[in-house]
Amino acid sequence: MKKTFITGLLAVFLLFISNGCEDFLDKAIEGQIPLEQIDYTDTGRMYEPVAGIYGRANDNNLHHWANYCMMIFRSDFVFKGAHANDQPIMEDIQDYKYESMRNAWFVNNLWTSHFGLIRDCDAALEELSLFAKHTTDQNRVNQYKGEVRFFRALAYWRMARIYGDVPYYNRNIVAGALRKSPREEVYQYVLKELKEIADHLPAQHPSRLPNIGGVTKWAAYMLLAKAAADVQDYPTMLSASREIVQSGLFSLFPDYYNLFKKAGEFCDENIFEMHHTDFGTSTGSATQIDQYYVAHGIKQQGGRRFDGAGFNSGWGFSMPAQKYIDMMQTRGEGIRLQTAIIYPNTKTAEGDSIGRIPADLQALLDRYNAQGRGAANAYWFKSYLPFNQQTPGRYRYGGWNNVRIFRYAEALLLYAEALIHTSGPGAGDAYINQVRSRAGMPAISGATINDIIDERAAELEFEWSADRFFDLIRLDRTDLLGPNFIKGQHEYYPIPTVQIDLQPGLAEPPVPGLFPK
Amino acid sequence: MRKLFMMLLCLPLMANTAFAQVTVTGVVTSADDGYTLPGVTIVLKGTFAGTITDINGRYSLPNVPAGGTLVFSFIGMRTQEVAVEGRTTINIALEMDVIGMDEIVVIGYGTARSSDLTAPIPVIDAQQIVRNVATSAASALQGSVPGVQVVNRGAPGSAPEIIIRGIGSMQGAQPLYVVDGMFYDNLNWLSPNDIESIAVLKDASAASIYGVRAAGGVIMVTTKQGRLNEGVIIEYEGYTGINSASNLMLMSNTEQYSTLLIEQGSYSRLLPSIEIWGGRPFTHNGEQYTIPVTDTDWYNELLSTGQVMNHSLSLRGGSQRTTYHVGGSYFSETGLLKSDNRFERINMKASLDFKPYNFLEMGTNLVVNHNLARDEGSVWGGMYTAVPIIPVREDDGDFAGVLQAGYLVGPVNNPVASLFYNTGNFNITRGLNLMYNAHANVKILGDDRLVFRTQFSHQLRNSNYRTYTPVFYVDEKLKNENSSLNKGHNEYSSIHLDHTLTFKERFGRHNVTAMAGFSTRQVDARNIRASARDVPGGVEEYLYFFNSTNPDPASYGVGDGGFAERGVSFFGRFMYNYNDRYLLNATFRGDGTDKYSQTWGYFPSIGVGWIVSEEAFMANQNILDRLKLRASWGQLGNNAVPRESGSREIFTGFNNSYVFGNNMILPGYSSSVFFNELEWEVLDETNAGVEISTLNYRLFAEIDWFYKVTKNAAIWTSNLMGAGGLIRNAGEILNTGMEFTVRWREKVGEFGYSISSNLSTLRNEVLTLGGQPYIDAGSGEFRRRSEPGHPLYSYYGYKVIGVYQNQAEIDAHLDRTRHPQVEPGFLKYEDLNGDGVIDEKDRQYLGANIPKFTYGGQIALDYKNFDFSVSVYGVHGNKLINRLRGDRAWHADYNFDLDLYQNRWTGEGSTNSYPSAKGLVNSWNLSPLTSFLVEDGSFIRIQNITLGYTLRNLLPGSESGSKIRLRFAAQNPLAFFKFNGFTPEVTGQGEAAGVYPIPTSFVFGINITY
Fold it and tell me: Could you give the domains of chain B?
């Protein structure tokens, strides 16, 4: 009797164990929709990965304030401002002291923000391929892929410009196997990509696209011309810039000052811009623009506000060199100088008060000047947005103003420059003079490459591409960068230590043949 | 009243044991020293009838049949059976058990005699816990168990971090807490007064019975229960005391701060303060300066004395068939800040056990815990950064802002203002925990030879929080234009169902215990949170969303989340003992989880032991009272891996969408294209130990060696370009060390004393990383690197070998074209490859936050009615990163601690270890990590000094003898350390930022047992 009882109990016990374990354990993750569940047959959603890339690019990736510092502080026209103890390591940039920067967060941030975008683009292209199986509209697929590939090319171009030899990113590379490619191959890849996608992208003015401000054929040509110029591929530079100029779709915005204010958003001059908005409401969502304008904006005494009652000042990270102001004055510049520079203790055209330079920033400028560096007692002014153009209740320096990436004025200058390169001085006069005329400058003739360098500085300084330093490198005028710059040594930033730690192969010499041909 | 209560409890159980014969009385003493023994259990054999000796060792047991037999049992003593033979007085002396301290130890799904164990399982008893003030149950472990590192946290109500035998996992392996058979993640909810004992399963062979959750070791808590035939014991424990901050790091005052700025060439930073709040003359190096009049000591403005208070009352006891323990406690602690910064805990507990039949025991436990915490914000970092040249308030009473003084960006603020507004006294977290279990033991064979046990446990945790930031304006830097109110609710439910079948039998000299079990676990957690803006504040009762004045729907936010876990386990244990000499323990556990791609994991263990002193050849020696050798090996798994790994994800929402012109939002998504398949992370541990008792059991020593390897370690590996990463099984991590315990206990007349100490060593090393050369953690500025051959998370950077005293020294050491900014007074780094360039190739390992030794000790003295004890805890050989100083790499613009000022380089020969004032803010000395920022984390802390006085039998009418103990205690009165921070007790990978310091408490307490 007892034995039967025990045996029975054991049997029940075993039953407990064997029953339904696997079902009990088979539980989906709470609240997560796995990727596999995206319905790729619903091609109505096919634009979503593309919109995702625009979003990622507009996120801190392309407009991070510190990235911009890294780009612009090497120019001979810009000093590191703010005050001496704010991001003190950044002061080394302007003297090309790269050794102490290898470990700085901002060097790594510049790298990961761009390669992160490249990774996201690759993922988006894989998504588009999955949708593509369910549509016969190959033009649509190609256009969508083209938009994504444009951003990828933009990121690679910037990396090659900044770091020189950089790796080809491919998620299938096993850990530790990553190697750099020679800079020339990175550029060849960028040029090839842009040439391929140009024909897939809409040939309209971006402001007249259904998705206003989307990537067009002209944005691709613009990047193609700029990238070709970096590697002295003047035939490509010529043909790409000519396509834009001869398209007849673009024209110069008559008011140079307001081109950079609200009135100049999505105007006929803009070839590509990233849209930023707070939707005109004082609270709620707004696009991610980081501190792109704030960091480089006018630093007011005590952080005071323009109207004295509702507005944060900028941080004053970038400060102009007297050399720039002198050059502009010598040239007789009017509106372009007034748009680029403003002096302390003045009022803007819109009536906003600019106070004196705060003591700590002044002390830094005084130190620069004591060292004979020639800092100006003035502010950069292009990132300024008047108080009355901001959404009430949503005040920050520069506000949510579109970031102008490519302008028609630069297309004209690129075309003019390519003509000079291929046909000699004077060949580009007609196009330079279009740009000069809008700025109220007299026509010139027989323009040379040196004229181009100056004209670009007058027209384009302190904009997104931060071209001055790169112009001097590609056109071999690094003598203008001062004695601290050593040719052959200071063109490229060191690869961040953090990245070398992740991929030791990045410290080794570049290996040819890794980029797809 | 008490009788009525007893009647109610016992009513259903009134049984038919009425064979009134004689009443036996007597005194039980110890044969060893002749002292009376309180608490000895006396049971009439074969019945439930029994009693317990009172405080004077006396007992009285009515209704004993003249031919019956009494069984006397007591922990550590050999159980004796005495035939009554008609006597009415039986005095008896119990002998110490030959096996020594043969306590019954809770070992997971069962108990065992400590002599039968083959793994080290140290036990801390209630007395030891009560001797310390120990506001949290877990902190009672600090210093008392070798191999267990307890890192305290100072904030009120915060739980310490516990690391058992080193860090074996990169996924974090906190210990598993098992309280009365139920699993918990922490012991925050538990009142230390309710604890009977804490046992620590530190090695894999002991812990493997808990399989997958035991990778960090197991801390097993048994709460107080009534005992059969005990009568009624009422106990009150109360204490009250004060908390104060100690070992504060001194900061520079205005003169010192100004001096540093002048030497840095940044004198102009002082001008705004002078302009606004006034200046005074100051001479530095013979030059006249004006420096600010303002000189704020932020500690004075922010710190105050906290209070700690506890009341607990319990009633416990047992009759023939019932035991019970009911009680409640209230604990409150206020923090060290001048703000409503406190923690409160209210606990109610009830446990009841019934023995309705000989073959059946049933019982239930219920704990209700309510706690409330008011947060202090993170003001400690703000105290370090705040500069002395800013006043707390302006003349008109408003808080002074820092913007006007030129501190535009960076961490410098007015910490009094931010404490006042940002915590606002409106932030609160409340938790309600309900924990209960019901269990039944069915005794299938008599004498507990075959027992089936089933236990259902349920833990329900509810917490809700509220944070509120009012509208305030100090200046543009410290302001809030829209008030914001956030509320959230979290719910957590964990259900365990355990069944075990235990067989115990003695076959001649063969003792066998076998257990088989099955357990299921179901965890479900949900949370919901909401936020709104523009809710009027000022009064707590206003803080409801519907009071928001903002009409914009976008100003409201709502979110929810949750996770679930399912687990199924089966397990078994076999314990064999031959003639109390040869021991064999084996366990096996299979765990099924929904977490890993690999569902099932299997974890075996085996242990052997040899009690040498029982052998015949040892019989004729009297040097060693007891000698035991043991060795064990076991495996267990770690499931503390984030649930999300192993699947592909998409990200949607605003930042993955784009807004084209005309503000047209096109929805988008981006995807993570990395995914992986994870297997179990397995811990493999070997342990060998020896236990010795000698000098008539007065001296006890235990030595253990362990060698623990984490295999298949789940490691976060970075994807290419540092763009995210994922967890892969890659690598092995070793922890090995020795543990020593020595205890001396003696009683000389009325003077009793004990000295115990323990020491453990630890060596941590990464063995392999699955082909990766190393894995990095931390930011580039504060790099921690894990590389085979080095400890996990070792700091990695430049080693300071001095300070450049003059230009010639720089020129001899550095390539000046590559390092033009270096000046005398700057730190000199070791140039490993001697190329004159300091770059990443010159980085080296600078230590890790892993102590080489931890040690603890306690001296306890008893004389007549006095008792006195001192306990000490120390850690040696770990290194910490001083993040407070290190943050200057980002913002050089904040105050300097006094140490930096006093020891700075001021000219050739002044110092060879601290940089000059100028060097303090130069990039050369700020980035990357240098050994200047890596400091010794060793410390010695006097944890507790207690003096107690006990009055006995003061209160009449107690059934078991009454007792009143008064005590005065100092908790953490002194600590010795070199680290330049608020406390050297730093959790995690050793980055010490604004850490809440460990308070010093002085406490007066009273304990009444009736």
Answer: 2-94 (2.60.40.4130), 104-226 (2.170.130.10), 254-294 (no CATH)
